[in-house]
């Protein structure tokens, strides 16, 4: 069974940090672009970041640039999202997703992604 599983979410105070993980099972992530997306209550799902198959290129949404860092360890079949200086507006369910195509900066089109995780909740609140 092909599956992505996110973890690492939780409740954190503004200014705090979290690191999300996304582990694949049933397939290897080596050839996939991975994206992180988030969805707040009542809002559309938005792209947060994406990374090329070898980890050499990344792209970030404007609202998280300079605060979030995406990385991957293909040997562990895992992708990470380091989130620093968290703000209340970062609250939402965070999803990882995989697509097999050549990396592009326009990597936040949700309909292009083949596989999705179930999401992990991130809440930024004092």
Verbal overview:
The structure is a single chain. The chain has 126 residues and is mostly beta strands. The chain is 0% helix and 47% strand. The chain has strands at 3-7, 10-12, 18-25, 33-39, 46-51, 58-60, 68-73, 78-83, 92-99, 115-116, 120-124. Strands 2, 4, 5, 6, 9, 10 and 11 form a 7-stranded mixed beta sheet that branches. Strands 1-3-8-7 form a 4-stranded antiparallel beta sheet, with no helix packed on it. The radius of gyration is 13 Å and the shape is globular.
Key features?
126 residues, mainly beta, four-stranded antiparallel β-sheet, seven-stranded mixed β-sheet, globular
Gist?
The chain has strands at 3-7, 10-12, 18-25, 33-39, 46-51, 58-60, 68-73, 78-83, 92-99, 115-116, 120-124.
Q: Structural class, from helix and strand content?
A: mainly beta
> DSSP strand (E) fraction?
over 45%
Q: Mean pLDDT across all residues, rounded?
A: 96
Total beta strands: 11
Taking the sheet with the most strands, its summary is: 7 strands, mixed
Q: For the terminal residues, how far apart are their CA atoms?
A: 39 Å
By DSSP (H or I, 4+ residues per run), the number of helices equals 0
Q: How would you spell out the order of helices and strands? A: EEEEEEEEEEE
* CA-based shape: globular
| Residue runs with pLDDT of under 50 for 5 or more positions | none
Integer-rounded radius of gyration: 13 Å
The amount of helix comes to under 10%
């Amino acid at each position: 069974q092909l599956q992505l599983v996110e973890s690492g979410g939780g409740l954190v105070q503004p200014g705090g940090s979290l690191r999300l993980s996304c582990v694949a099972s049933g397939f290897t992530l080596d050839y996939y672009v991975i994206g992180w997306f988030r969805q707040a209550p009542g809002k559309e799902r938005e792209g947060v970041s994406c990374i090329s198959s070898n980890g050499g290129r990344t792209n970030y949404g404007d609202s998280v640039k300079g605060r979030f860092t995406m990385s991957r360890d293909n040997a562990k079949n895992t992708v990470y999202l380091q989130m620093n200086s968290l703000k209340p507006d970062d609250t939402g369910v965070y999803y990882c997703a995989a697509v097999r195509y050549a990396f592009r900066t326009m990597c936040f089109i949700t309909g292009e992604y083949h596989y999705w995780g179930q999401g992990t909740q991130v809440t930024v609140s004092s």
